[in-house]
Amino acid sequence: MATVQKFLFDTSFDEPDSEPARKTGPVPVPEGGLDDEGDMPRVDDDEQPYAGLDRRRRSADAPLPEPPPNLYTAAQVDAAREEGYLKGHTVALEEAGASTARLTAAALKDIVAAFDRMDAEQRAFNAEVEKSATRLALTIARHLLPAAAEAGAVPEIERLVAATLPDVLDQPRLVIRVHGSLAEAIRQAVRPIQDDHGFEGRLTVRPDNDLPVGDCRLEWGDGGVERDTVRLWAEIEAVVARYLDEIVPPPSPPRPDATGAPEADRTATPGEGEAQADQDSAPEQGEHHG
Question: Where does the record place the region Disordered (predicted)?
Fold first, then answer.
């Protein structure tokens, strides 16, 4: 009787712990013999219903392998977990601190830049306010001081004469030139000044309508002194122009009703008006001529 040899692979694919593979050998031919084509006769599925699951059944019924022993104890695992948490928390805090520092530095930089801009703007504003105040003060002075100078012309001239007499006591003659509207008042005012300082020369008051009201000129043999408000205003405007760094516009012309007192056209005689004075005067109000 012929035998059939089952084909087997050289490599076994069975589970390592499964029971050893059955030894195979020649498959006996059933009593009925082979079929017409020389193959094994077909076995009814009812006779061997689980023939195909035999190997699976054997693998499932085999005992499971024991798990490998734990490499770390529970305490070690907990300690490692705690250490990891602490490290992560520390790193997070460091990153948060670095981020906060960067944000703080950026905010401070913006604040400093904003303060610099505000300081520059405030300085420019303050400078403009100061210039505006200076322009306003000059405008007010131009409107008020001429009238004030005319109103206080006599006392100012008295102080100038009183300050000059001690330096000209050896002069034989002193001429005081003022606007005609002030001539008589100055004659009356300088008499006590002459007596008080002991001036023995001739003191003459002469009207000069070419002088502005409030100005005066004192003349003696080799010199003189004057009170010149026009020149004083020019100096003031020059100082203001340098401060403002701009050209100061000229004053507006006075209104017809803002003129001073009526001009007098009276001429004094050579011997008239000898007077003496008794009041002080500021030296800066005059200029000596030699």
Answer: 1-70, 246-290
